[in-house]
Amino acid sequence: MKHGIGLSGIILVALLFSNIPLKGQDQTGSQQYLPWVANAPLVQSAQAAGLNLKVTKFTDSADGVCDADCSLREAITVANQTPGADTITLSPGIYQLTIPPELDNYGAPLEDENNAIGDLDIADDLTLVGAGAETTTIESAMPQRVFKVLAGAKTQFRHFTITGGGTTSDEEGGGLFNAGDLTLQNVHIVGIQIGNSDAATGNGGGIYNVGTLALTDTKVVNNSAYNSGGGIFNTGHLTMKNVQVTGNSSGGYDGGGRGGGIYNTSNLTIYTSQITRNAASSFGAAAGSGGGIANNGILKLYDSLIQDNYASGGESRTQGGGISNEGDALLSGSTVASNTAELGGGIASSGGKVNVVNSTISIDILPRINSRDSRVKHGKP
């Protein structure tokens, strides 16, 4: 990219090589011919905003070069080192991360932000595009999260699935950790576990957000954290539209899991989404709270469904099967139904405020233990 080649030389290189197939490897290790990197660094003009890079193999490697033999990690490294908003394109298939992180004396992964080992670190503006969430998967085979988006990076993820990864250490974000400005469109975050059941550590089984995050047409499914935020842990600005948060769980031996689906301590706005079948639980003294959502910040819920979530376990009484609120919450045009907790099966608000507008909170009164009592609780037993 920076080898003293003049503009005429660059044009000549583009003419010579733009349509030549080059050899790579598929996920089985067999040789196949794959297309040249789209608009590769050698053919980039001085006026271009960024690179268009195409990953050519499914295996993990880190030589820092994205040419005919280009892994996802290598493409991200080149994008991080190139000013401008770059684009990386993924074909259908499973891209597996196998270069492990360094571990501390307790076996926990050390943070490394140069993208050479461990999780994939995004440090500059980037759009990462798959062929579809059902056909393109990025999977970690290591004891660490899959992605980390660093502060200052403006990033878009589109049309792929994130899975694998996770760790038994006190890490944050099993699927991804976001400190930048990140948008997810048609991305599935599935089946990731983080934390330690004995120590009740780990937050944000699927996502941990401290930056600005927007989710659209996205699924966060079957993730778990042994502390809080089984699906999502948010301490930044999070906006969700047409999102399914389903089958996630939080809590451990004595963690008093909070937010089986989502745990929010900052700003969370949800439109036309479904928060269903999530669980916040505990096996010790502290009780689970907020099976669907545990809110300690500002929550705005529009035209959405909170259903079949539950808070369970612990020696003290569980609360907020659907929503546990200790902040400010607005529900507009939404339904809270068939959620379970000992106190406030639908919504439990303790020390916070709940404003309900044109919404339905179902009431199905059963015995206190394992009840579906959906009365709003205001800090009283």
Low-confidence stretches are 1-48, 364-381
Number of strands: 36
Radius of gyration, taken over Cα atoms and rounded to an integer in Å: 23 Å
Biggest sheet features: 19 strands, parallel
Strand content: 35-45%
Helix content: under 10%
CATH class term: Mainly Beta
Helix/sheet category: mainly beta
CATH architecture classification name? 3 Solenoid
Structure explained in plain terms:
This protein has about 375 residues and is mostly beta strands. It has one domain: Pectate Lyase C-like (3 Solenoid). It is about 5% helix and about 35% strand. It has two helices and 36 strands. The chain has helices at about 5-15, 70-80; strands at about 20-25, 30-35, 50-55, 85-90, 95, 120, 125-130, 135-140, 145-150, 155-165, 175-180, 180-190, 195, 205-210, 210-215, 220, 225, 230-235, 235-240, 245, 250, 260-265, 265-270, 275, 280, 295, 300, 305, 310-315, 325, 330, 335, 345-350, 355, 360, 375-380. The strands form four sheets. The protein has a 19-stranded parallel beta sheet that branches. It has a ten-stranded parallel beta sheet with strand order 6-9-11-14-18-22-26-30-33-36. The longest helix has 11 residues, at about 5-15.
Outline:
The protein is mainly beta and 381 residues long.
Chain-wise SSE layout:
Layout lengths: L6 H11 L4 E4 L5 E4 L17 E3 L17 H9 L5 E4 L3 E5 L22 E3 L3 E4 L6 E5 L6 E3 L4 E11 L11 E3 L2 E10 L2 E2 L12 E3 L2 E5 L2 E3 L2 E2 L6 E3 L2 E5 L2 E3 L2 E2 L11 E3 L2 E5 L2 E3 L2 E4 L10 E3 L2 E5 L2 E3 L2 E4 L9 E3 L2 E5 L2 E3 L9 E3 L3 E5 L2 E2 L15 E2 L3
Parallel strand pairs: 3-4, 4-7, 5-8, 6-9, 7-10, 8-10, 9-11, 10-12, 11-14, 12-15, 12-16, 13-17, 14-18, 15-19, 16-20, 17-21, 18-22, 19-23, 20-24, 21-25, 22-26, 23-27, 24-28, 25-29, 26-30, 27-31, 28-32, 30-33, 31-34, 32-35, 33-36
Antiparallel strand pairs: 1-2
